[in-house]
Design brief:
Elements: E1 10-12, H1 20-33, E2 43-51, E3 56-60, H2 73-84, E4 90-99, H3 112-125, E5 130-134, E6 140-143
Parallel strand pairs: 4-5
Antiparallel strand pairs: 1-6, 2-3, 2-4, 5-6
Helix pairs in contact: 2-3
The protein binds tetrahydrodeoxyuridine.
Tetrahydrodeoxyuridine (THU) is lined by residues 38, 41, 43, 45, 61, 63, 70, 72-74, 97, 110-111, 114.
């Protein structure tokens, strides 16, 4: 029998349609993206995480001459958050990535490994994390949970 899974996301037209906190997250992700360490791909990614206490944690992709040793912006940021603020819940994760010199882009979603890592923290805190992935100059996609981006997800409930 054929079955389908439907995923839900919101397409926000552009920056001007974001609310104030979302604009701040966009701005902070853009700002940290400027200093991403991406000498090999020149594809720079910024991430901003909003905590339940209102604090914002930012991070960027960190590459390595031994390519697989590098890390995406989302995991750099969420691992730092998990390491430093293990008891504080994460409300939103905002990511923006594009080639360094680009002025236009499409929304770039978190890679598979980042989705799995984000899911771990969502499951741990028993509360959904809203995910935003933005283009530089146009649409911003939003999901209410990382599970929308990771159907048939594997988590600790199977262990
Ligand atoms: N990258 C991220 O930071 N996040 C993603 O979700 C996709 C890819 C980084 C990894 C690498 O430094 C560069 O983008 C090109 O793949």
């Amino acid at each position: 029998m054929d079955k389908q899974i439907k995923i839900n996301f919101e397409a926000i037209e552009n920056y001007s349609h974001l609310n104030d906190i979302e604009k701040t997250l966009f701005d902070k992700a853009m700002e940290i993206r400027e200093i991403a360490y991406a000498p090999y791909s020149d594809f720079t990614v910024g991430c901003a995480i909003l905590l339940e206490n209102g604090d914002i944690i930012t991070g960027s992709n960190q590459e390595n001459a031994a390519y697989p040793s590098g890390l995406c912006a989302e995991r750099t940021t969420i691992f730092y958050t998990g390491a430093n603020f293990p008891e504080i819940k994460i409300k939103k994760l905002f990511v923006i990535g594009a080639p360094r010199k680009a002025t236009t882009s499409v929304p770039i979603p978190p890679c598979g490994a980042c989705r799995q890592s984000i899911l771990e923290y969502e499951a741990k805190q028993k509360e959904e994390i809203e995910i935003y992935f933005a283009s530089l100059d146009g649409e911003i996609y939003k999901t209410k949970s990382i599970r929308e981006l990771l159907p048939f997800s594997f988590d600790a409930s199977f262990l």
